[in-house]
TrEMBL record:
InterPro entries: DNA/RNA_pol_sf, Rev_trsase/Diguanyl_cyclase, RT_dom
Organism phylogeny: Eukaryota, Metazoa, Ecdysozoa, Nematoda, Chromadorea
Domain annotation Reverse transcriptase: ranges: 34-277
UniProt-listed PANTHER family: REVERSE TRANSCRIPTASES
Protein's UniProt name: Reverse transcriptase domain-containing protein
SUPFAM superfamilies, alphabetized: DNA/RNA polymerases
Amino acid sequence: MQRGTAPREDGVTANALKLASHVLVQPLCKLFNKCLSSNCIPAGFANSKTILLLKKGDLSLIANYRPISLLSTIYKTFTRVLTNRLESYLEDAQPVEQAGFRRGFSTMDHIQTLNELAEKCDEFHLPLFMLFIDFEKAFDSIKYGALYEALQRQSISEQAIQLLQTINENGRTTIHIKFDKTEINVHQGVRQGDTISPKLFSACLQLAFERVNWQGKGININGQHLNHLRFANDIILISHSYIQLQRMAKDLQRQAKGIGLKINVSKSKLVTNQNTN
């Protein structure tokens, strides 16, 4: 847990938890083991405070704000434990095209790939089409049913899935806007601010990609086809053909809708090289 992270209403910070670790290790270990074995959590354990952070643009437009969940530090410590238990299974299900939220991967991997791809296409006078896709409120839109199906397909135990269901079903959030606050139930999405959310999002996104039929599509590199790259929820579709790229985009749009995601057309951009007509 990072030091200096913002606490929820309980006022417990990561710094305080670490300073008191010699006293809290045993009772927290007992609590976490009970949660893991019983698939139950204490009342209010998964509740959060949601604040809105301005990304950029017009202050009056709600679309320009990113909701961030401020969760209990003890709860986030628990989901870190849960993440560590599930990580090896979730990691095995991720392809090399996904570089987000993974040890040993970075944006530089994909930047290097795209640079080499562009250079080779220019060298051999080949057309190159790349569609940079943006999803609207990606983390907040994931359907729970799709998430649980994805976890089942990725060999996560039924017990762990039931525990995540319990967390989602019991989690409420209080939205704070200036001096007003409203408590609501949460019926979809993985919470930005929860330690397990990035892994859950990637798992669900993988379900959508498993459902697209892109065999033989993309760019042939030594007998293997490269048709997309991913960094978390940022997607790049790649092809020599504009028509093929359109079909791939429609396939992804349809399958992404099935897990709750919607492509943001206004923020998705097409990039081509000088060899295209």
